[in-house]
Amino acid sequence: MIRLFLLIVLTLAGFVLLLNAFGDPVARPVAKTPAPVTETPPVPDEATLSEALGEGAGTGADGTPPADLVQVTSQTPEQIQRFPGPPLEPSPEYAGRTPPPAAAALPEGAQGPFMVITGNRVNMRAGPSTSDAVLTALDGGTQVEALGPTGGDWVNIRTPGGQSGYVSGQFLRAAN
After folding, report:
1. Domains of the chain: which residue ranges?
2. Which residues form the SH3b domain (predicted)?
3. Quick count: other Cβ atoms within 10 Å of Cβ 70?
4. Are 147 and 156 in contact (CB under 8 A)?
5. What sections of 28-135 are H helices per DSSP?
6. Cβ(112)–Cβ(151) under 8 Å?
7. pLDDT bucket at 79, cuts 50 / 70 / 90
C-alpha cells in the first residue's frame, strides 16, 4: 500500500516537472507584487461643486447648459425590432374563412349532459373507432354536448359548431 502511494506521488511530481519545463510559459503563474495602496481623494460636497462650476451647477452664468454637453436622447439608440419576420397569412385550406370564436356557445336546443375535452388536441371521428375518419380536432377545454351514454369507451358528442361525431371517453370529463 505504501509503495502504491509513493508511486502515485512520484508520478504526479514527474508530471508537474514536465509541465513546468515544457509547458506554455504564458500559462505559468507570475509572482505579482502588490500595488501600492494610495488614499482616495476626498469627494467634494455640493457647495464646493457649485463654487467650482459657477452659479447653478452644470449651467453657464446665464442658466444655459454648456455647449459641450451631450443630451441623453442623442446617446440612447432607438430600439428597433431587427427581425420582425413576414406578416402572418392563413394557410391555403383556410383562406377566405374567418376562425371560429374561441369560446363558442353550444347550439340552441342543446340538452346536455355537457362535457369538456381534457386533451390538448383530440380527434373527433365519424364513428366509434380509431379506424373511422377524423372529422375535426378539438382543443382542450372545449365544451361539448353528449348525445349518448357517457360511460363507454367512445362518446357521441356535438361540438359548439353543431358538428356531431365520436370522441374517446378517456379525453372527456363532466363539465362543472
Report:
1. 114-174
2. 112-176
3. 7
4. yes
5. 46-53, 72-75
6. no
7. low
Architecture per CATH, domain 114-174, reads as Roll (2.30)
pLDDT of residue 149: 87
C-alpha radius of gyration, the chain, whole number: 39
**Residue bearing cell 365520436:** 166
Q: Cis omega (within 30 of 0) on the bond before 128?
A: no
First to last CA, the chain: 73
Q: Which grid coordinates are listed for 48? A: 464646493
For 137, the grid coordinates are: 380536432
| CA distance readout (Å), 123 to 9, 10, 32, 93 | 69, 71, 72, 18
Specify the amino acid at residue 166: Y
Instruction: Look at 49-58, 130-139, 150-159 and tell me which has the smallest mean pLDDT.
Output: 49-58
Give strand ranges (E) for the chain: 114-117, 121-125, 134-139, 143-146, 154-158, 164-168, 172-174
Which pTM does this prediction carry? 0.40
